[in-house]
Amino acid sequence: MLEAYENGLVIQTKPGSVPALKRYLDEQKGRPIGSVWTDIQPVQSQAKERTGYPTQKPLALYERIIQASSNEGDFVLDPFCGCATTPVAAEQLNRQWVGMDIWDGARDIVLQRLAEEGMVTADSDHGLMFPHDVHVETTPPERSDDNEVAAPSFKLRIRRPREPWQRISHKSMTNVLAVAQASGDGVMCAGCGRVMEREFMQLDHITPRSDRGENHILNRILLCGPCNRRKRDYLTLRGLMRENKKKAVAWMKDEDRAKLAQDSARDRAEWLRDNFDTPECQALIAGRSGPA
Question: Which one has a higher pLDDT value, 234 or 121?
């Protein structure tokens, strides 16, 4: 404390007040930077560093990345260095660098930007002078690994061809399921058993898409608004019914009627799949009528 006082780091705003330690911002550790950087602006149209390259990034951004991921003397590689930002940032930070680009003019842009940053100078006898050798190679490299695979190939999920009945629209599925879940002048909710007007019913998945549920009518059901919002994209239909029966929720109106709505919807969806090309099925899909 005495040393801090002698160095002028202890202050007292008035006699009798508690002494406080004077802190300087540039001496503080600060907070670690997060994963979202909003303090570096994109290259503006009138910026001095702008080259016109469509994917050019700010020099300050590359300087931060290089400083955070390498030490002086390390190699920095940019396999797409058309606008030369990486070589310039690496050179300024005393890194060795390798830049690649398919564009023939990439070498000239690299030397031009290095000159603009004062790292290359003009000499009447030797042209551009650079403190290091800039080696340019135009011959494609030859592989020396006997074409070994560096990483296992990606396993792509191949989309299976879909049948016509699997491609009907949301409106068409609603037409079919409204007939299937009909009760009197309304439609039965398959989640709580309430009977409501069709306008209050919403189309939802039986097995959520997040659980790889299919998008066709065999995996669709009509629910009332509250059930649809409660189910969202993580509950199955069975999970929704369990949730509705909890005391804290108390939304289950008629479980037997909800199950009846589910069975009727399943039967009608299977009928549509097996009779898709019939006039009766097409009329049902269009909302004109339903099968007997």
Answer: 234
Residues of the chain with CATH 3.40.50.150: 49-139
Given 3-state DSSP classes, what are the helix, strand and coil percentages for the chain, each rounded to the nearest 5?
35, 10, 50
H or E element that contains 203? strand 201-205
What the block records as the tokens of 216 is: 């066709």
What is the Cβ-side half-sphere exposure of residue 234, based on CA atoms within 13 angstroms? 2
Superfamily of the domain at 49-139: Vaccinia Virus protein VP39 (3.40.50.150)
Copy the structure tokens of residue 63. Answer: 């300087």
Which pLDDT score, from 0 to 100, does residue 289 have? 66
Tens of pLDDT along 51-85?
887 888 999 999 999 999 999 999 999 999 888 89
Instruction: Tell me the CA distances in angstroms from 123 to 92, 108, 119, 129, one per residue in order.
Output: 21, 17, 13, 7
Average pLDDT over residues 207-230: 92
| Mean pLDDT along residues 216-233 | 94
Q: Strand, coil or helix: what is 41? A: coil
Residue 116 parent element (H or E)? helix 106-116
